[in-house]
């Protein structure tokens, strides 16, 4: 089965999660930065995982552009999953918690965009916590990413 993980990363945290997911899935997984990915890469895909940091409740512009290029029906036979990196709502100010409630996060937005294109998500979108604006990842998030990925392998 062809497995592809496409990610974008600003401070390196989402990239770390993408590679942890790839390692947990196994050697058949290919990990690519969104700037290197092409829609042609999606041909005969069995599992596609998309990951991005959350910026203003949205995926990065590069990930949004890639999602727009995916033709309707392109992923009808694939399992698809999405993850993001995000701030810790529990430690955020009241303003940021309210903003997150209104805007949400990137992974659910990716799932919504793909559902419009007829894609069934294989698993609920997942968010991995970053401490501060630039990181590091919260302790235990790499292990949590590996556990999440193992659910996709089955």
Automatic annotation (TrEMBL):
Where are the coiled-coil regions?
Answer: none
Q: Which InterPro entries match?
A: Flavodoxin/NO_synth, Flavoprotein-like_sf
One of the entry's Gene Ontology molecular-function terms is: FMN binding
Domain Flavodoxin-like span(s) in chain numbering: 3-153
Taken from the record, one Pfam family name reads Flavodoxin_1
Name recorded for this polypeptide: Flavodoxin-like domain-containing protein
């Amino acid at each position: 089965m062809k497995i592809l993980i496409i990610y974008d990363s600003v401070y390196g945290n989402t990239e770390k999660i993408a590679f942890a997911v790839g390692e947990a899935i196994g050697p058949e997984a290919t990990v690519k930065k969104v700037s290197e990915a092409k829609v042609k890469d999606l041909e005969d895909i069995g599992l596609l995982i998309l990951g991005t940091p959350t910026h203003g409740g949205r995926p990065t512009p590069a990930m949004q552009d890639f999602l727009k290029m995916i033709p309707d029906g392109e992923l009808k036979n694939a399992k698809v999953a999405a993850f993001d990196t995000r701030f810790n709502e529990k430690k955020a100010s009241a303003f940021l918690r309210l903003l997150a409630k209104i805007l949400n996060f990137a992974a659910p937005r990716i799932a919504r965009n793909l559902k419009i294109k007829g894609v069934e998500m294989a698993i609920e979108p997942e968010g991995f916590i970053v401490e501060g604006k630039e990181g590091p990842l919260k302790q235990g998030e790499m292990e949590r990413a590996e556990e999440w990925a193992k659910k996709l392998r089955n």
